[in-house]
Amino acid sequence: MGESAEEIYRRVQEAAGPDGRLAMPPVHEWDTFPFDGEIRVRSLEPPVAEEPPRHGVGGIGCGRCQRGDATALWHDENWRVVPTDRPHGLPVIVMLETRAHLDLPDLSDEMAAELGRLVVRVERAVRSVGEIGRVHVCRWGDGSEHFHVWFMARPARLPQLIGSFAAIWDDILPPTPEDVWRANVDAVARALAEPA
Ligand SMILES: [Zn+2]
């Protein structure tokens, strides 16, 4: 039995200072931490009764189903690869997603094997953009009900952008110029169009 939200919350309250806040970790020592100056930890809100629903639950009002393959850079009968709908701070971000409303544990052995091959294929396609230091392959899954994996291209030779804070730097950096972003997205699509 895992620790319940109430138990975690109680433990946090016991560990928190008189203002109800936990101490800051030594982020000022981390080269990749994007922020400077006085920062406080937010108070942890009490647990909620149930998990909030994800986007497009049961396919009702699901933006991804409505969009279909219209914006996909590549697709087959089970999967599609889609870019973000606009330029971001990172040079290019694409998502590999299931066409169906499936979660990771729902994948058949066949789709699990396809996923393994596709993760490598999409990473290579994103890397083909050039000037990419790493492609961060991330699965969070709290948003869309379609299983999806993020591929975040991290620019080469900017050491502060390494690691998981790249996802935060993505919101901080000025958006990639539209023409550069389009060329990056096109490069990913071209690479995916080549035979696997
Ligand atoms: Zn859907």
What do you see in this structure?
α3 crosses α5. The protein starts with a helix and ends with a helix. The protein contains five helices and five strands, in the order ααβββαββαα. The chain has 196 residues and is an alpha+beta fold. It is globular, with a radius of gyration of 20 Å. A hairpin with a 3-residue loop joins β1 and β2. Helices cover 30% and strands 14% of the residues. A five-stranded antiparallel beta sheet has the order 1-2-3-5-4. The model has no long low-confidence stretch (mean pLDDT 95). Zinc ion binds next to α2.
Structural class: alpha+beta
Order of helices and strands: HHEEEHEEHH
The distinct bound ligands, ions and cofactors come out as: zinc ion
> Looking across the biggest beta sheet, what order are the strands in?
1-2-3-5-4
Counting DSSP E segments of at least 2 residues, the number of strands comes to 5
Shape: globular
Features:
binds zinc ion; 5 helices; 5 strands; single chain
How would you briefly describe this protein structure?
This protein has 196 residues and is of the alpha+beta class. The chain has five helices and five strands; from the N terminus they run ααβββαββαα.
List the SSEs and their pairings.
Layout: H1 5-15, H2 63-67, E1 74-75, E2 79-83, E3 93-98, H3 109-127, E4 132-138, E5 148-155, H4 166-172, H5 178-193
Antiparallel strand pairs: 1-2, 2-3, 3-5, 4-5
